[in-house]
């Protein structure tokens, strides 16, 4: 019968680094991955480029995880962005830093990072078993005893003894990569409380056909506000995109969790877009007055070409109910106010959100109160450790979530090996 000191379930970012970290301490390690190859989801991160981490200072980094961020304080003290980059550089991965402190492999290819992590595990003797389906985890007296699994092409269950087990099964987003929520079921069966999971960093669907009219339009340097029951719940500045179903893009994804949670509570959700965030109402009104005076004979729809992307002009005309062919010098003060208000508060009602198939990460997961933040070990089951997205941790975009997976994975691996 095959044996190992440490068993890791899940071959994503957290699982690979956990396996390597444990093996680095001299432990024999077996990693069980149900897909044909590990690291499938890594290939999708950063639009295929892999936003590895962010160079933000630790405390600023933690703030991106909201109220649960403090759980990462100890993990980041053990293994943070510079440690990760040193590890990857030792495996031949050079990196570059882009806008917002986001770090990418210089190759521009996520596969570079996945290959380096696999090489890291192999260099330390990790055995990676692919196309393995874990059926269950056995315990005796609240201690890990073994893992039951089947191999591809066989329904005959086999047992792998395990006294130290790391669950790094990922979340429920992008299920085609293998993240189908198995870990939540395992953890729940073992007595852990699971904070209800829901899609996060996910596109939003809108009511009406405005988004469809604007499909393909990308807006840069705008301010987006999510309103819940007509009260501002959060805002972000940057880029967004209109799609056939609604809205997406960096600032939409970053604020989407607010919308998802409010929708699940049956509250009214809308977004408002400030198309001219660099100008307050007074300065924008002064600009409109100058433009109207300077181009008095131009029709309004022509004048708007200097203010808006072409696709937005019909929507602006429709929503403000202004006459498109009205000469600029005939626009009244009230009509100018209507235009100004719309430019600062273009509003869309939110109908829902896309599924886990299009969510970058999963919110919710194993209750952090039941996990030791310094070792990632379960407070309920001896020898059980957690790493990565299975935990109730999620942040906005920018490399934060992947760093959390790497840090919790490294800590779980070292702690399972007995070195923490």
Q: How would you characterize the overall build of this protein?
A:
The protein has 420 residues and is α+β, with helices and mostly antiparallel strands. Helices cover 31% and strands 25% of the residues. The two termini are 29 Å apart. The model has no long low-confidence stretch (mean pLDDT 96).
Please describe the structure with a list of short key phrases separated by commas or semicolons.
420 residues, alpha+beta, six-stranded antiparallel beta barrel, five-stranded parallel beta sheet, 13 helices, 31% helix, 25% strand, elongated
Oligomer: single chain
Give the strand line-up of the largest sheet: 12-15-14-13-16-17
Helix content: 25-40%
Tally the helices: what do you get? 13
The largest sheet is: 6 strands, antiparallel, barrel
CA radius of gyration is 25 Å
How many distinct beta strands?
A: 19
Supply the helix-strand structural class: alpha+beta
Q: Roughly what fraction of the amino acids lie in strands?
A: 25-35%
Beginning-to-end CA distance, first to last residue: 29 Å
Mean pLDDT: 96
Low-pLDDT runs:
none
Shape: elongated
């Amino acid at each position: 019968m095959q044996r190992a000191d440490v068993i890791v379930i899940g071959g994503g970012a957290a699982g690979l680094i956990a396996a390597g970290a444990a093996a680095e301490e001299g432990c024999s390690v077996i990693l069980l991955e149900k897909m044909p190859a590990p690291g499938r989801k890594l290939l999708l991160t950063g639009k295929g480029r892999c936003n590895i981490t962010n160079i933000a200072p630790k405390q600023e980094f933690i703030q991106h995880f909201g109220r649960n961020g403090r759980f990462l304080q100890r993990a980041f003290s053990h293994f943070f962005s510079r440690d990760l980059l040193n590890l990857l550089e030792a495996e031949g991965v050079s990196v570059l830093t882009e806008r917002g402190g986001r770090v990418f492999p210089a190759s521009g290819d996520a596969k570079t990072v996945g290959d380096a992590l696999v090489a890291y595990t192999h260099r330390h003797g990790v055995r990676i078993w692919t196309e393995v389906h874990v059926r269950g985890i056995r315990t005796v007296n609240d201690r890990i005893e073994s893992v039951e699994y089947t191999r591809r092409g066989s329904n005959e269950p086999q047992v792998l003894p395990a006294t130290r087990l790391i669950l790094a099964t990922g979340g429920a987003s992008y299920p085609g990569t293998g993240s189908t929520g198995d870990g939540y079921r395992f953890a729940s069966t073992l007595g852990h409380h699971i904070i209800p999971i829901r899609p996060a960093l996910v596109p939003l669907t809108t009511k009406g056909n405005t988004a469809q009219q604007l499909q393909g339009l990308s807006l840069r340097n705008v301010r987006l506000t999510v309103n819940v029951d007509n009260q501002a719940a959060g805002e972000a500045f940057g880029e967004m995109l209109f799609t056939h179903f609604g809205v997406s893009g960096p600032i939409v994804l970053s604020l989407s969790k607010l919308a998802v949670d409010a929708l699940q509570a049956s509250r009214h959700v809308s977004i408002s877009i400030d198309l001219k965030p660099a100008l307050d109402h007074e300065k924008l009104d002064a600009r409109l007055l100058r433009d109207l005076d300077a181009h008095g004979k131009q029709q309004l729809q022509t004048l708007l070409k200097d203010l808006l992307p072409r696709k937005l002009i019909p929507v602006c005309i429709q929503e403000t109910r202004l006459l498109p062919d009205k000469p600029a010098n005939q626009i009244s003060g009230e009509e100018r106010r209507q235009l100004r208000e719309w430019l600062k508060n273009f509003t869309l009602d939110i109908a829902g959100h896309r599924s886990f198939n299009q969510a970058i990460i999963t919110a919710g997961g194993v209750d952090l109160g039941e996990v030791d933040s310094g070792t990632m070990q379960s407070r309920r089951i001896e020898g059980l450790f957690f790493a990565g997205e299975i935990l109730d941790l999620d942040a906005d975009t920018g490399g934060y979530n992947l760093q959390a997976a790497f840090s919790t994975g490294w800590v779980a691996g070292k702690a399972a090996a007995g070195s923490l």
